[in-house]
Amino acid sequence: MITTLPKVELHLHIEGTLEPELIMQLAERNGIRLPYADLDDLRRQYEFTDLQSFLNLYYANLDVLVTEQDFSDLTRAYLKRAQAAGVRHAEIFMDPQAHTSRGIALATCVNGVSQALADSVTEFGISTSLIVTFLRDRPAAEALEVLTELISLDAPIIGIGLDSAEVGHPPIDFVEVFALARAHGLECVAHAGEEGPPEYVWQALDLLKVSRIDHGIRSLEDDALVDYLVQNEIPLTVCPFSNVRLRVVDRLEDHPLPAMLARGLLVTINSDDPAYFGSYLDDNFRGLQQTFGLDAPAMAALSRNAVQAAFLADAERAPLL
Ligand code: HPA
Ligand code: ZN
Predict the structure, then answer these.
(1) Bind-site residues for substrate
(2) CA of 133 to the centre of ligand 1 (A)
(3) What is the pLDDT of residues 116-133, one digit of tens each?
(4) What digits encode the pLDDT tens for the residues 58-94?
(5) 19 a catalytic residue
(6) Element housing 193 (H / E)
(7) Which of 33, 137, 186, 189 could, after both became Cys, cross-link 165 (CB 3.0–4.6 A)?
(8) 273 lines ligand 1 (CB under 6 A)
(9) What ipTM was assigned to the predicted interfaces of this complex?
(10) How much distance in Å is there from the Cα of 36 to the middle of ligand 1?
(11) What's the rounded Cα separation, in Å, for the pair 75 and 199?
(12) Per the annotation, where are the binding residues for Zn(2+)?
């Protein structure tokens, strides 16, 4: 039932799909020496205490991604796994600065990922789009430069987002970047309310004018914010297993998903960084089903929320329902 439920994934970092086996293979192919004795030693690093402890490993492992081929192999591997999970449409995040900051050309990462995405419908039956996410713990001026270059390259992106270490890096710092994106007709989303306070969710809405919030689970701490999100049908791309593994919640049993649904929020279920959290989209749905006893209509409703929240024309939504 879970694998046949048609699914839409709206919060997935392509870099977060880099599996340990592929890290070892790419290191070998590119002649890169890794600071791990072997695959088991690498696997032992996947214990996180918070967002930053995860980001440290996530960024370090990216050193193995060098060529366009590496980026397209990474993307194809995700699409193959997503197909098995029943994903029919995916709006995929990529962090260009995580690559340009280590000397990889912007065109290398963008072309590598988008080449694999271009074949996705025929190869895997998954429609896709690409959203570039800017690292909020790097200067906004750098994000502006990268966005300007993406626009001049006419990169095949539909939107921009904001991610990386949240606390101390409020959305207000990125007003200019998001204004430029909007002026070019790009969709806008932002991570907010994962570790950061509800105030960051308000800023993302009011100042960056985003149309979806990534995570957003701390919105529940602010009743007026919840009312606003409900009234305006602002989708939240929630990632249950990510929240557990990054210790935003202690256990899946403690996840606020049932409370969010009870308040009438437009919640979608997503995998975030499945290679790091050990759970792809089907695993997230299965975990919720087992933990909260969600029945088939409740699971189908979550899937429909994602279809509604996707950046698609109405004619493209119909086949996903
Ligand atoms: N939060 C912030 N930044 C990220 C995440 C996340 O869950 N995954 C990859 N970059
Ligand atoms: Zn994320």
Answers:
(1) 273
(2) 10
(3) 999 999 999 999 999 999
(4) 999 999 999 999 999 999 999 999 999 999 999 999 9
(5) no
(6) none
(7) 137
(8) yes
(9) 0.96
(10) 23
(11) 34
(12) 11, 13, 191, 272
